[in-house]
Design goal:
Strand content: 15-25%
CATH superfamily of the largest domain: P-loop containing nucleotide triphosphate hydrolases
InterPro entries: DUF3427 (IPR021835), DUF8090 (IPR058403), Helicase/UvrB_N (IPR006935), Helicase_ATP-bd (IPR014001), Helicase_C-like (IPR001650), Helicase_Restrict-Modif_Enz (IPR050742), P-loop_NTPase (IPR027417), PLD-like_dom (IPR025202)
Pfam family, one: DUF3427
Organism: Carnobacterium viridans
GO molecular function, one term: DNA binding
Shape: globular
Largest sheet: 9 strands, mixed
Structural class: alpha/beta
Distance between the termini: 24 Å
CATH topology of the largest domain: Rossmann fold
Protein name: PLD-like domain-containing protein
Number of domains: 5
Helix content: 25-40%
Length: about 950
């Protein structure tokens, strides 16, 4: 390691061209575009450390919350740490110290040093120390969004700087006061918070303003998202459109948006329709705030009020949909009608209203337009989507309360994790209740006084858990669909007043209820759909002065639908398993000062669910097809799936022989293809639709635009150069081998039947006669162009300056094709490695499993650290074997390593990068075969030219356990 540490210092301070390593000095700046944050560095250090010591002046509950799963996992492993902080400037609130005292494996002390303002993080790792010093306190803003400068360095125990840091930390630690419950009690009694002046845009609900803090009230203005939506609505009306749909996440200000649009549209009479009477007064107050006007201009139409002469009328659907009420108005009485929660418009009451009135413009607003009852909201609004803002965008714009999501392991009974089939008796037994309360108290909530909504799987579970929580000193109630609206509202008011801590519920509160003061959302049920998951999450995301953030605690059992959790959190509904795995081990996709964390075992449950789930079942593909069909109002094609960020087009294209076959199977084909034409689609879908090399797509698209013309080799080279892609002779030859199918051998060649797309002479390339003949069929030409266009969209995920993109996944045959092999090799013949020209490729399955049949012996290939892999050759091999001799002369070869966690991940491998063997590590030894006999094999250590990405390494390394 000494050599690596010396090299890292030389790289940092002498020559940046030196190969990097894990130990390189690192400048840490929060970078939203690259999704790189100080928070991730701290989490990664905690994941691998043997002990830690933080010396940090300021902390917030949110900053601590983002590290709680790491600290819980460390406690499970028996690893302890220290935190030294202060009361400097009275920044640290009492609730922070209440949280700190909950950590069983963290000792906390309070420095009484005047002006204590340090920000240092020290970690003892295996064989070295790492430490971070800079400007970031332990607050979510400092860890994710602020412009901060921090530096990470590594050192041996006997290094001068690490000795100085440890000495100063220990001196301050010994002089500091131990954090105790009594200390927290005394601090709480005398605490005087700093006074802040907050500028409040009155776009907030005035009722939510904290009167205890001085405010400067400014004129309300639309936020960025609302400005964009208003522009789109204005442009939509210019086209003559009479309907528009706004899709906006719960809590993002749909009512304010509608008021702003009324302000810009200037209608004479407005009707605002809601589904619950309790929303009417809130909506009316928002419009009064934005529009002004006289009080008499605003009226309510409900069961209790009939103020029908008002210019701006706010009505419940239950009242306005009655014939006797509707007929009091002329059909064109209102020139602007708005419908809130318009996804309910499938109900007959909404149909009656929409069919009766003839406004100049009808605006629908919803967070969830996708319906499962077959009703098409998009069609109702003439497919005019004026604007769409989902959860991720809303968080980016700071429109919602930040949240900290914790995926925690559910209760284990007799070695069995809670599942869909668990008996109710186990769900409500006292041991589980104790376990749940321990987790709820550990992960806590903003302010430490819970106002929680708990989603259960069964009514009896909700009822019994409510009683048991009550008995354990946590006032609670339960609500189901059997309770009246009045009873629900009564209990919600009790929750908001702090009379109860929890409401347990089953089949209500997914939507249509607004409880801004909720600071804890608890999920005790299997995730049935990503839509419902987001709806339940959204119950706590409306901003409120009473909370800094929302805590979401998801108890993850042995559920087959666990794969839906990363799908819902990321908003990625592609059903691509690689994406779902990535969104589980790398949660940086979440924006702003929110965070997503999974306990180790809970994460394993999700990976297991992803591996076992059938992502391409016909029922799911048909459902995804229908949703997109509803949105577009026509048959969607592959490019539509990609552009609309819905299901991965590869799934629908390859479910059958081709996407055409899929359309035929669901009776949606818009033309007819011959067997030959369909085979062309099949080949293109399997080989080029993934977009892993752009050249084939660009060339075929160009030649299809001029089917009668040929292209010279120089012309192809120029075409590639113009498109910014590799244009060397070997790459061009490989592309042509692919397009004329000469690359393919064995069963693949038999499947493709040598049905070439091109033919070539010595200097020119033509479309084949078969392919030109197929292009006469316009439907075939359209579907082929669709494949190429979609492949080009997908190719944006891959670098164009190199044949392979680091950390992307590839099949063996794709690697050989992209590295310009002349011929395809059967996977079995490639096995663990192969070589050609100056390329040596290695494929490693890290977790072989008991039934591993890839070799006669159990190979122990292993990632040692971020820069090193232990690797074995095939057997029998000796130091004189040809491949070993090649590796001994590594300077002549590009040696590339591809790895996957296990065979459960399918046939694709992550490209980890280039390596060089450590020559002194290459040794010959004997390994025992499965039949007990011994054979010779060669072992060596491979050094990556650049360290492996930390999050991917942690994911793969976990598979070795």
């Amino acid at each position: 390691m000494t050599d690596m540490l010396e090299r890292s210092l030389k790289k940092a301070f002498i020559d940046q061209k030196i190969e990097g390593s894990l130990y390189d000095p690192q400048m840490i700046i929060n970078d939203t575009e690259k999704k790189q944050y100080m928070l991730n560095v701290l989490q990664n250090e905690l994941d691998t450390c043997k002990e830690f010591f933080f010396s940090v002046a300021f902390l917030t509950q949110g900053g601590l919350a983002a590290l709680k799963t790491q600290l819980a996992d460390l406690h499970t492993r028996g690893i302890k740490g220290k935190i030294l902080t202060s009361t400097y400037l009275a920044f640290n609130q009492p609730a922070v110290f209440e949280d700190l005292i909950k950590f069983p494996n963290v000792e906390v002390r309070i420095s009484e040093k005047q002006g204590f303002h340090s920000k240092g993080y020290l970690f003892k790792q295996s064989g070295y120390h790492s430490f971070i010093i800079g400007s970031s306190n332990l607050t979510m803003s400092a860890l994710k969004t602020n412009y901060e400068w921090n530096v990470r360095l590594t050192s041996y125990d006997h290094g001068q700087m690490i000795q100085d840091i440890q000495l100063h930390m220990e001196q301050e630690w010994q002089a500091a006061q131990v954090l105790t419950s009594q200390w927290v009690y005394n601090y709480k009694k005398t605490y005087q918070p700093m006074t802040y002046y907050k500028e409040v845009n009155t776009i907030q609900d005035p009722a939510l303003i904290d009167e205890s803090t001085p405010y400067i009230v400014t004129k309300p203005d639309p936020n960025n998202m609302q400005k964009a939506a208003l522009f789109n609505l204005k442009e939509l009306r210019k086209t003559g459109a009479q309907k528009g749909l706004v899709i906006s996440a719960t809590g993002t200000g749909k009512t304010y948006l509608s008021a702003f649009d009324v302000l810009q549209a200037k209608p004479k009479r407005v009707l605002f329709i809601v589904h619950r009477e309790q929303i009417l007064n809130k909506a009316k107050s928002v419009f009064q705030e934005i529009l002004g006007e006289q009080k008499d201009d605003y009226g309510i139409l409900s069961g209790n009020k009939k103020e029908i002469t008002a210019t701006y009328l706010f009505a419940t659907i239950q009242t306005i949909s009655k014939d006797a009420v509707m007929q009091q108005f002329a059909k064109d009485h209102f020139d602007y009608i708005l419908i809130d929660e318009v996804h309910k418009a499938g109900a007959s009451s909404y149909h009656r209203v929409i069919d009766y009135f003839k406004p100049n413009f009808l605006l629908g607003m919803t967070a969830t337009p996708e319906r499962t009852d077959g009703f098409n909201i998009f069609e109702l609004f003439d497919y005019n989507i004026a604007y769409e803002i989902r959860l991720q965008e809303a968080l980016e714009e700071n429109m919602l309360s930040p949240f900290h999501y914790f995926g925690v392991t559910d209760y284990v009974k007799d070695g069995e994790l809670i599942s869909e089939s668990t008996n109710l008796k186990i769900l409500v037994e006292e041991e589980r209740v104790t376990y749940l309360l321990e987790k709820l108290q550990y992960y806590g909530c903003s302010g430490n006084i819970p106002k929680g909504l708990v989603f259960c799987s069964r009514k009896e579970e909700a009822k019994t858990l409510s009683t048991l929580f009550q008995q354990k000193g946590h006032p609670s109630t339960y609500l189901t669909g059997e309770h009246s609206l009045e009873e629900r509202e009564k209990q919600v008011e009790r929750l908001e007043r702090g009379e109860i801590e929890y409401i347990f519920t089953v089949d209500i509160f997914n939507e249509g209820i607004d409880i801004p003061k909720i600071n804890q959302v608890v999920m005790l049920r299997n995730t049935q759909s990503n839509i419902i998951f987001v709806q339940q999450l959204g119950r706590g995301l409306r901003k409120d002065p009473s909370k800094e953030f929302v805590t979401v605690i998801d108890f993850i059992g042995n559920y087959k639908n666990n794969y839906m959790i990363p799908m819902a959190l990321s908003g990625d509904v592609s059903r691509d398993k690689n994406n779902l795995r990535k969104d589980t081990f790398d949660t940086n996709f979440i924006s702003g000062i929110s965070s997503i964390n999974f306990e180790k075992i809970a994460k394993q449950q999700i990976f297991s669910s992803i591996n076992q789930a059938s992502m391409d079942s016909m029922s799911e593909l048909r459902k995804s097809f229908q949703l997109l069909y509803n949105r577009l109002g026509r048959v969607p094609y592959l490019k539509d799936f990609e552009e609309q960020h819905t299901i991965d087009p590869l799934l629908v294209a390859n479910k059958k022989l081709s996407y055409y076959d899929f359309l035929v199977s669901i009776k949606q084909s818009e033309g007819t293809l011959s067997e030959l034409e369909n085979r062309f689609l099949m080949i293109a879908s399997r080989e080029w639709l993934p977009g892993k090399r752009k050249q084939e797509l660009v060339l075929l698209e160009k030649m299809m635009s001029e089917p009668e013309n040929s292209l010279s080799l120089k012309g192809i080279q120029q075409l590639f150069i113009e498109n910014g892609i590799l244009a060397d002779e070997e790459t061009i030859n490989s592309v042509l081998n692919t397009l004329d199918l000469s690359f393919y051998t064995g069963s693949m060649a038999a499947t493709y039947k040598k049905q070439a797309f091109i033919v070539r002479t010595e200097n020119n390339v033509f479309l084949s006669s078969l392919y030109k003949e197929a292009l006469v069929n316009e439907y075939f030409a359209y579907m082929m162009s669709d494949i190429l266009a979609t492949g080009l969209l997908k190719s944006k995920a891959y670098t164009t300056s190199k044949p392979l993109t680091r950390y992307q996944k590839y099949k063996r045959k794709e690697v050989l094709r992209l590295l310009n092999w002349d011929k395809q090799m059967v996977d079995q013949n490639v096995g663990g490695y192969t070589s050609s020209k100056d390329e040596f490729v290695i494929f490693v399955t890290l977790k072989k499993g008991e039934n591993f049949t890839g070799a006669q012996m159990a190979y122990e290939d292993e990632l040692i650290d971020y820069s090193t892999m232990k690797w074995f050759t095939k057997s029998p091999r000796t130091m004189s074997s040809p491949e070993v001799q090649k590796l001994m002369k590594a300077e002549k070869w590009h040696i590339r390593v591809f790895a996957k966690k296990s065979d459960n991940e399918g046939t694709e491998f992550y490209y980890l990068g280039e390596v060089k063997p450590v020559k002194e590590s290459i040794i010959e030894l004997e390994k025992t075969l499965q039949n007990g006999k011994k054979k010779k094999v060669v072992e060596m250590f491979l050094k990556f030219l650049e360290p492996i990405d930390v999050t991917l390494y942690r994911y793969l390394e976990a598979g070795q356990e």
